[in-house]
Amino acid sequence: MCPNRLAINLDAATALRAAGIDNPVREARLLRAHAPDPARFAALLARRVAHEPMAFLLGSQGFWTLDLEVSRATLIPRPDSETLIEAAIAALPDKALVHRILDLGTGTGCLLLAALVEFPGAFGIGVDMVADAARLAARNAVANGLAGRAAFLCGDWAGAIAGTFDLILANPPYIETIDIAGLMPDVALFEPASALDGGADGLDAYRRIIPMLPSLLTPYGVAVLELGQGQAADIADLALAAGFTTTTRDDFGGIARAAVLRRA
């Protein structure tokens, strides 16, 4: 690396560190690699110092085996959510029996597209109430060679869906409303509140989704829902009332992150 570029990267890392950004040296290098033009680099650096997420600056985020376009219409895919794909694979070991997959609140399409990679005989439908999110997910399907096996709709959860599915995935909003403002600024200031805010106790979306599941799942189908920390018992109670048993799968941090629902 030339001395001038090294100095620029060190200055950028210092600015990022002062803003409270983790891994400032690595992030400075990523920004520099993404924008070799000095003016472009300076503009991106200013946005990152203001805590705009790196994924939005780069325009993409890795998830499972996929590279996904991101935008402010959706949450940024996170490694914790890969736990749902792991849980689905474990719950449905005979992949040939999985023909139809539904993803509620699809966002970037990350869960549905990752599931389609793992269940190669399946067709999937992704639903999002935000039209820009559904369009983004459709672009990601094209970019990852899965457009022929996926369709994306704009709707309110499963309200417009008929038919049954072998696997249902959902990462609904589950943050308690009172906690939204206290999230790290990268999230609170830039990611859509509608995808974060789960109501007073964080469970509003689950109260909508879980009662829909009996009419949407095939007899031996499973639903895999993402959970917030400490929500497993409440979700199990909601699931039991709808006729389901629940098991959970932990993420890498040891938090129960995925709830797997089966008919009781």
Summarize the structure.
This protein is 38% helix and 21% strand. It is of the alpha/beta class.
Uncertain parts:
none
Average per-residue pLDDT, rounded, comes to: 94
The total number of structural domains is: 2
Biggest sheet record: 7 strands, mixed
Task: Please give the count of helices.
Answer: 11
Task: Indicate the CATH architecture of the largest domain.
Answer: 3-Layer(aba) Sandwich
Class computed from helices, strands and strand pairing: alpha/beta
Rg for CA atoms? 20 Å
How far the N terminus sits from the C terminus, by CA atoms, comes to 61 Å
CATH homologous superfamily assignment of the largest domain: Vaccinia Virus protein VP39
The count of β-strands is: 9
Overall geometry comes to globular
Helix fraction?
25-40%
Residues in β-strands, percent: 15-25%
CATH class term of the largest domain: Alpha Beta
The largest beta-sheet arranges its strands as 5-4-3-6-7-9-8
Succession of helices and strands: HHHHEEHEHEHEEHHHEHEE
The CATH topology of the largest domain is given as Rossmann fold
